[in-house]
């Protein structure tokens, strides 16, 4: 299992990719996926603080729903997860509004978990 610091480093790595010029506009599907994985590593970072780790996505979603420090961002986390699946596997084309909504979900997760740092 990755350490608490490794999860945080991976979150920072993903966040850096989000800032690349034109990444959001040209590669919207991968932009959403990177948003989701950035959120995933923030969640794993938080879980690791409590001595918890996830084995897979289903396990992690259950922990996000049940862990008191994560429950407030359960809806945003699940929404990012679902959108990342839709765009990658169902070839859903994202609108500007979809991307902006996903960024709001990520921002809420990021803001909530940074207050728990």
> Could you name the CATH topology?
Four Helix Bundle (Hemerythrin (Met), subunit A)
Oligomer kind: single chain
Helix percent reads: over 70%
Secondary-structure arrangement, i.e. CATH architecture: Up-down Bundle
> Which spans have pLDDT < 50 for at least 5 consecutive residues?
none
Query: How many individual domains?
Result: 1
Top CATH class = Mainly Alpha
Intertermini distance:
20 Å
Give the SSE string. HHHHHH
Indicate the proportion of strand residues.
under 5%
Sheet/helix structural class: mainly alpha
Number of helical elements: 6
Q: Which outline best applies? A: globular
According to DSSP, the number of beta strands is: 0
What summary fits the major beta sheet? none
Overall radius of gyration: 14 Å
Mean pLDDT over the residues? 93
